[in-house]
Amino acid sequence: MSSPPLVLDDFIPFRLSFTSNLVSDTIARAYETLFGLTIPEWRLIAVVAEGGITQAAVGARTRMDKVTVSRAAIALVGRGLLHRVHNPDDGRSHLLGLTDAGRELHGQIAPKALELEKRIFARIDPDEITRFVATLRRIDAITLAIGASAGEPGPHAD
After folding, report:
1. How far apart (Å, rounded) are the C-alpha atoms in residues 10 and 32?
2. Rg (Cα) of the chain, in Å, rounded?
3. SS3 of the chain: helix, strand, coil, percent, to 5
4. What residue ranges do the domains of the chain occupy?
5. For 39-59, what is each residue's pLDDT tens digit?
């Protein structure tokens, strides 16, 4: 028995990627225009705003690869938005933290991010969004389990 043909537009992994890229591109244009930030820089600011974290932990949390995280961190340190301090728990790594300017910028961006999210999802029923997010989290867990059983390495580029 032969498998049905693969139609890319109906292939769920492609749909997820396409939609994710579409949303990310829309957000990227807004953050670049308003704040001069790339998506990786914004993600780094958002994660670091939740508390001191290492670059490796940022990669694991956001699924950004080491090079992307490193470049974003270097750019943000250079702009005076992020600082690196020695990690007392691991002499080979540094904890990232927001500077006062970084906290101020986060305070300006966070409401804009929430506003943009609201605009994107305004025409979708809140219960549908709740189910959608729950489904995404289930897909995450299943995919991580498949990757772990296949011996997949850590975070990948997004």
Report:
1. 32
2. 18
3. 65, 10, 25
4. 8-123
5. 999 999 999 999 889 999 999
How far is the C-alpha of 102 from the C-alpha of 42, rounded, in Å?
11
- Judge contact between 59 and 65, C-beta under 8 A: yes
Q: 8-123, what's its fold?
A: Arc Repressor Mutant, subunit A (1.10.10)
- Tokens found for residue 147: 């990757």
Tens-place pLDDT, residues 114-126: 999 999 999 999 9
Phi and psi, residue 96, nearest 5°: -95, 140
Rounded to 5 degrees, what are φ and ψ at 154?
A: -65, -145
Confidence at residue 149, expressed as pLDDT on a 0 to 100 scale: 83
Chain-wide mean pLDDT for the chain?
90
Token pair of 11, please? 């292939």
- DSSP codes of every residue in 117-142: HHHHHTTS-HHHHHHHHHHHHHHHHH
pLDDT value for 3: 87
Residue recorded with tokens 């409401």? 111
